[in-house]
């Protein structure tokens, strides 16, 4: 059975998803709060999410090789993340998946996993 990494198209598929995700975050007015949490240039964020998702989806552990364990909540703790911020993140990810992941079953699976991840990052009430 193929890993989600393989199903999404390996390196090229993950890169396409990440790039579309950040393109949307950078342009959708309704993602303004989550966009403001990022640096002006999204290059570093694009690379880090690409490296993280590669391993998270069952491919090469690029993030771990560079930085060790992701410790996602700790790394995101400096940012005030509430439910609205998590929903903005998910809006961008869902639209990016709709445009780059052709397999509906894979999109549904990833959507539930991404939603768990986004909600886990919350560190503010509301």
Helix-and-strand structural type: mainly alpha
The biggest sheet amounts to:
none
Distance between the termini: 39 Å
- Mean pLDDT rating: 96
How many helical stretches?
8
Give me the Rg, rounded.
14 Å
Shape: globular
Order of helices and strands: HHHHHHHH
Please provide the count of β strands. Answer: 0
Low-confidence stretches: none
Portion in strands:
under 5%
Instruction: Indicate the percent of residues in helices.
Output: 55-70%
Please tell me about this protein's structure.
- The chain is 70% helix and 0% strand.
- It has helices at residues 4-8, 10-27, 32-36, 43-56, 62-67, 72-76, 83-100, 104-120.
- Helix 2 crosses helix 4 (43-56) and helix 7 runs antiparallel to helix 8 (104-120).
- The mean pLDDT is 96.
In short:
With 126 residues, this protein is an all-alpha fold.
How would you describe this structure in keywords?
126 residues; globular; mainly alpha; 8 helices
Helices, strands, pairings?
Elements: H1 4-8, H2 10-27, H3 32-36, H4 43-56, H5 62-67, H6 72-76, H7 83-100, H8 104-120
